């Protein structure tokens, strides 16, 4: 049960605490004084400078302010060349077109660069810089939010931990003390029969609470900057430690699953002709914690998902050529997690017979 009590605070395995120095650059404030072209040049110049910290022969570098990804890519004229580029999953239309021009030999490697701004409902979350050298093509992402936002999130997470502990004590563990007191006072009334007390876990009391799922959903919305970084870090296997902590960070999305289960439970009570198989909330927690990272990684390696996410990021909303909107892709990711357990428990044969 301890894992659920401390789960709101597990985010700080990846996120900095509010009182730690924030070395990230607030590009929103800087770029407010320049046009888009000038801003992109400033961001790209800083990204090139930061990439010098990446050691020779190392593909990935991770720091508090930014991440750097370097990959050797063989140039050839083909649409599939895009899939070989680092972090193509997050390319804007401008980056997409420049990459095709690079593969076709229209522009030289020294002339290839792109600065992509990732937004959520128009609010900038991250800047990704991509450029090419004769032997490599590094990509770098930087994410940020104001310090006041981090402080608010810390207070929310502390409250969530306290509330989870309170719910468990109030609705579950306090009955132990009642049982112990009654057994001491009254015993078994002289009965020599052996009684076995079967005790379950309080997992379902917490995870099927819709208010808890909603609170974690709000935490998810307030942490989009670090979720972007976690997804980026999961899309690599050069550094397993970074991959592990990013997986732990994304495992908090299991509360989407619990929210989906609460909603499903409410609906099927009104659909008498649909039958579901029982499931174990604890097994769901273990499964989501284990597979959230690997599933995200494999999505970043499958052509279909890469092309589909490109459409969601660039084509669904009207955005500038150098911008991607993560709203729709984020909701798709969330709903795919929400729907997995309910769909896996649906008895399709009973549904077909009722129809």
TrEMBL record:
Keyword line: Membrane, Signal, Transmembrane, Transmembrane helix
Species in which this protein is naturally found: Thraustotheca clavata
Segments crossing the lipid bilayer: 240-258, 278-298
Residues in the signal sequence: 1-16
Official protein name in the record: Transmembrane protein
Highest taxon, organism lineage: Eukaryota
């Amino acid at each position: 049960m301890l894992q659920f009590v401390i789960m709101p605070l597990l985010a700080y395995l990846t996120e900095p605490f509010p009182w730690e120095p924030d070395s990230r650059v607030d590009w929103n404030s800087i770029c407010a004084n320049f046009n888009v072209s000038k801003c992109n040049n400033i961001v790209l110049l800083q990204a090139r400078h930061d990439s010098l910290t990446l050691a020779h022969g190392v593909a990935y570098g991770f720091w508090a302010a930014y991440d750097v990804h370097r990959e050797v890519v063989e140039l050839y004229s083909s649409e599939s060349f895009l899939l070989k580029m680092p972090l193509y999953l997050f390319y804007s239309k401008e980056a997409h077109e420049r990459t095709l021009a690079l593969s076709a030999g229209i522009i030289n490697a020294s002339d290839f660069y792109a600065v992509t701004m990732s937004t959520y409902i128009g609010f900038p979350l991250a800047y990704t810089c991509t450029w090419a050298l004769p032997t490599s093509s590094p990509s770098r992402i930087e994410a940020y939010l104001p310090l006041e936002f981090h402080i608010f999130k810390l207070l929310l997470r502390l409250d969530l931990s306290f509330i989870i502990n309170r719910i468990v004590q109030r609705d579950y563990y306090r009955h132990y003390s009642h049982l112990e007191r009654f057994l001491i006072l009254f015993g078994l009334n002289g009965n020599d029969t052996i009684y076995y007390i079967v005790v379950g876990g309080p997992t379902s009391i917490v995870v099927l609470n819709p208010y808890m799922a909603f609170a974690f959903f709000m935490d998810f919305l307030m942490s989009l900057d670090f979720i972007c970084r976690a997804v980026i870090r999961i899309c690599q296997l050069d550094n397993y430690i970074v991959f592990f902590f990013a997986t732990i960070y994304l495992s908090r999305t299991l509360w989407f699953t619990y929210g989906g289960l609460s909603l499903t439970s409410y609906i099927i009570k009104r659909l008498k002709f649909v039958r579901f198989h029982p499931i174990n909330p604890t097994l769901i927690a273990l499964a989501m914690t284990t597979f959230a990272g690997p599933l995200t990684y494999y999505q970043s390696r499958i052509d279909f998902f890469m092309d589909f996410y490109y459409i969601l990021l660039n084509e669904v909303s009207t955005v500038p050529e150098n911008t991607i909107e993560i709203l729709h892709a984020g909701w798709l990711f969330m709903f795919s997690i929400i729907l997995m357990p309910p769909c896996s428990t649906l008895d399709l044969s009973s549904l077909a017979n009722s129809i």
